[in-house]
Fold:
Amino acid sequence: MDSLIFVVSVLAVFAMIHERVLELLRVPLRFIAKPASQAPEAPLPPTHPRTVVDGLTIGSFNWVSAVILALLTHADLLALLSSKPESSNFFKFYMTDERSWDRLFDPATRDAQLLHLLGCVLMGFSTTAGSKFWHDMLSGLMDLRKRLKDAESEARKLTATELKQALESAAGELGDSKATNPAQVLADTARALKNAANKAIEPRPS
Structure:
């Protein structure tokens, strides 16, 4: 559960960074691509620079910019998924030259670099779901983890209570015993403890 929460947290942060970067780029690019003589209310053709900018930032082609950002920052989803949070290689590659793209041309590192390329492409596609999606998923996972911990704690509490009741019952059986022979006392004690253990582990009615 903790590993999954770590992965979703990184995806949420990366998606938020992607959205902020696109916001910063979109305004100046739209200004540069402003039509000179066309009426404001007239629809722009699909090939117009402003239409292209909108498509790459807030439109159906925003995955292109997301993949480009992942490639530039070396954000590798496969590295994020391949290990535990404390030993993840994601931050070893992220924003570093550890996996520079010229390694694609080196036969000795080509296979590993192609895998890294695939991880970056997948990272770009995953962030197009949006930071809100990943944030909502993160909140749901954290709530689920809390509920599981509460349920486990409650189960332990019930088990301890039942064990206490069973031991009290065993003590009551020993108190009612009339045995005076040490061997008989030991036998009665063993029998009482066995009954207590059976009561403690017997399944509760659902």
About this structure: The chain has a mean pLDDT of 75. The chain has eight helices and no strands. The radius of gyration is 32 Å. The helical segments are 2-32, 49-57, 62-73, 77-81, 90-93, 110-127, 131-176, 182-201.
